[in-house]
Write a structure and sequence with these properties.
By secondary structure, the protein is mostly helical. It has helices at residues 10-17, 21-43, 46-63, 73-104, 117-128, 132-143, 148-155, 159-177, 179-189. Helix 3 crosses helix 4 (73-104), helix 6 packs across helix 8 and helix 8 (159-177) packs across helix 9 (179-189). It starts with 9 loop residues before the first helix and ends in a 10-residue tail after the last helix.
Length: 199
């Protein structure tokens, strides 16, 4: 947390609200150190704290005209910094969890005599060539055995978006290696939950 109260000149805030670029630069320079310390108190990471402080400053540039009382700038800004710090922390945790899951479910070779070796290799190559958002979704669903709502929570997107990505990824894979080979290998990769893996 800031070690002392953030001091902001209301006149500088007023000039920044009126579009004075020098006033805006002076305002943000004056509060940067406090923003960084406040963000760091939440995220405990230098890079995340810097990102949060930068996002907070960008929010000020976009929204300062909405501030009704210039003398309330410090409290308003601190709320923005805290919001951005928590957003950075959530995103970091999601990324860490996703990396661990992808590592744990990294396209194993399926030990099944009915799945041809070259089909498996073709599928691995095709999945690796997918755009990252589709690749993550396919791996978490078929190799991690996860349903759309759980994948959505990990990736930070709605379940409907997950279902769209799955459908699009399957279409891309069918185009790449053929529908029959794709279905055979993915069905044997899937680990159904209660109720089964979504098709």
């Amino acid at each position: 947390m800031p070690t002392q109260r953030m001091i902001v000149d209301p006149d500088v805030v007023l000039r920044a609200q009126a579009g004075d670029c020098e006033a805006m630069q002076s305002l943000l320079s004056g509060v940067w150190a406090d923003a960084y310390r406040l963000a760091w108190s939440v995220v405990r990471d230098e890079h995340l704290a810097e990102d949060a402080a930068q996002e907070a400053c960008a929010s000020v540039v976009r929204a300062i005209e909405s501030l009704r009382r210039p003398e309330a700038f410090a409290a308003w800004f601190c709320r923005i910094v805290l919001r951005e710090a928590h957003a950075q922390l959530r995103a970091s945790r999601r990324a860490t969890a996703l990396a661990a899951l992808l590592k744990a479910t990294a396209l194993p070779v399926i030990s099944d005599a009915s799945s041809r070796w070259d089909d498996q290799l073709d599928l691995r190559a095709a999945i690796a060539a997918l755009p990252p958002s589709y690749r993550e979704t396919i791996i978490l669903h078929y190799y991690g055995g996860m349903q759309s709502p759980q994948i959505g929570r990990i990736l930070g997107v709605p379940a409907a978006t997950v279902r769209f990505r799955l459908a699009t990824a399957r279409a891309l894979l069918r185009r790449s290696i053929g529908g029959a080979a794709m279905r055979t290998v993915l069905q044997r990769a899937a680990r159904p939950e209660a109720g089964g893996v979504e098709p």
